[in-house]
Design brief:
Layout: H1 2-21, H2 29-32, E1 39-41, E2 44-46, H3 51-79
Antiparallel strand pairs: 1-2
Length: 80
C-alpha cells in the first residue's frame, strides 16, 4: 500500500504541474474535443484532464500513506 500511495502522490503532482504547463486555451470550440487524454492539436500539447484531478489523486495518496503508517504503528504496538 505504501508503494501505491507514493505512486499516487507522484502522479497527482505530475497532473497538477503538467496540466498547468501544457494546457492551451483554444479559441475554436471545435478544437477542444471531449476526450480525456493527452493529444496534439495543431502541433500543440493539450491536457484534457483538469488540474484539480491531480490534487484529488495527490490527496488520496497522502491519506493512504498516513493510514498505512498508522496501521503499521498500531500493529507494532500490539506485537510487543
Amino acid at each position: 500500500m505504501k508503494k501505491l500511495s507514493i505512486f499516487m502522490i507522484a502522479a497527482g503532482l505530475l497532473l497538477i504541474i503538467c496540466g498547468n504547463v501544457f494546457y492551451k486555451h483554444h479559441q475554436n470550440p471545435d478544437d477542444s474535443g471531449g476526450s480525456a487524454s493527452i493529444t496534439t492539436l495543431n502541433g500543440n500539447w493539450s491536457v484534457k484532464i483538469p488540474a484539480f484531478m491531480g490534487g484529488v489523486v495527490f490527496l488520496f495518496g497522502a491519506i493512504f500513506l498516513y493510514v498505512d503508517a498508522d496501521i503499521k504503528r498500531k500493529n507494532k504496538g500490539l506485537l510487543q
